[in-house]
Amino acid sequence: MSARVAGELADLPTASISDALDKLGLRGSMHGLSPLRPGQRACGPAYTVAYEPVDDQGGTVGDFLDDVPAGSVVFIDNAGRTDCTVWGGIMTQVAAHKHVAGTVINGVCRDVAVTTTTDYRIWSVGRFMRTGKDRVRVRAVQEPLLVDGVTIRPGDVVCADEDGVVVVPAGRADEVASIATEVERVEAAIVATVRDGATLREARSAHGYHSLQTPDRTASDTGETA
């Protein structure tokens, strides 16, 4: 993926990226993941981490953050658990210091007050104060995850804003960015046409709104997922 495409995706809203994924017959919109606070935005390659419950052999929550490159988005799968956290104040401050782009958690975070002082960006299922230490451990790092029916591979592009989180397959990023840019253009044209005196019905019809996100048969028949 070129720097140009990465920049385009970073500038696009997740709504238009989601529409582009629909158009291509790709799954990438993540249900149930919300920003910690208003105004958040992040986009970067996925650095994936999977957790699992501890057993008699024990295990740790891990120090994987030492290896996360600047500009990455850490994507953590804790199986959607809301009874213990896998991200807190130490992680937030270290990630901010390392210029990590943000963190997405299929689970919960804590130390929200610390996060607000760093301006670090987090998306999660929710927040809860109980530690994950002695409850969960790192199972895998930089391996594919499957969350909400979406496969997240290391290096896939994670884009997140106030609407939520989408994941773009690295190998399809150019197509997604191109279609999402066209979605933005068409929607702006519809609004401009209404302001010029047309009805919403007329404007949508004139600019092909109702087929904007409809998958092409060749795309929908591929069975590919993000």
Automatic annotation (TrEMBL):
Membrane-spanning parts: none
Gene source species: Nocardioides pocheonensis
Subunit organization: Homotrimer.
Recorded catalytic activity of this chain's protein: oxaloacetate + H(+) = pyruvate + CO2; 4-hydroxy-4-methyl-2-oxoglutarate = 2 pyruvate
Binding site for substrate: G88, G89, I90, M91, R110
Binding site for Mg(2+): D111
The protein's Enzyme Commission number: 4.1.1.112, 4.1.3.17
Annotated SUPFAM superfamilies: RraA-like
Protein role: Catalyzes the aldol cleavage of 4-hydroxy-4-methyl-2-oxoglutarate (HMG) into 2 molecules of pyruvate. Also contains a secondary oxaloacetate (OAA) decarboxylase activity due to the common pyruvate enolate transition state formed following C-C bond cleavage in the retro-aldol and decarboxylation reactions.
Top EC class, one word: lyase
Protein name (database record): Putative 4-hydroxy-4-methyl-2-oxoglutarate aldolase
Cofactor(s), by name: a divalent metal cation; Mg(2+)
